[in-house]
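User: My advisor, Dr. K., asked me to get a structural model of this assembly before our group meeting. I'm new to this, so sorry if the format is off. These are the inputs:
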Amino acid sequence: NAGVTQTPKFRVLKTGQSMTLLCAQDMNHEYMYWYRQDPGMGLRLIHYSVGEGTTAKGEVPDGYNVSRLKKQNFLLGLESAAPSQTSVYFCASGQQPQHFGDGTRLSIL
Amino acid sequence: AQSVTQLGSHVSVSEGALVLLRCNYSSSVPPYLFWYVQYPNQGLQLLLKYTTGATLVKGINGFEAEFKKSETSFHLTKPSAHMSDAAEYFCAVTRSGGYNKLIFGAGTRLAVHP
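Assistant: The format is fine. Below is the predicted structure of the whole assembly, which you can bring to the meeting.
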């Protein structure tokens, strides 16, 4: 019963580098989400997907791209990392309730 | 539009004391309400949810919450705090039908001292 799995768990990048965060879920959920968590701000939605092959912008999409080529996977990409993107990133799947992964802690120097 | 306000970013209680974490929401349609808990270096875990029906909702670890429409509140309580309850708690709101964004409060960090 893995649920939602995020890789990697930690990463340090330099400004301008690119990377991809992977989220995998084994619950056959149609809906998947990427959030970022910053102190005192709760969770803010970056992008979401309502099914394989679909993506949509959330509250704070700038600087991020996503892809949902397979139903079980939802990828979050940073094309040119900036220090403002230092955060903890959470993937979730499902609907009412959403199920969360353990997060990816990303630092950008 | 929907929104959530959690009163008190930090709450401190003694072990064995009542835990009360406050959540008020705004919603123009009947809300679905959630409480999540986040332990250090972990993701969010669902404590309980209200969708329809009984307004007093019981969750895991002895927590419960009551939906009060007249007060637009969904406060989280636990009669007797345990050291293991120390964590951050998030209230969230959404609505039924199709895709609807889950709106989170800013969170309340609960400290439990001996």
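One thing worth pointing out at the meeting: Chain B has a mean pLDDT of 93.

User: Perfect, thanks a lot.
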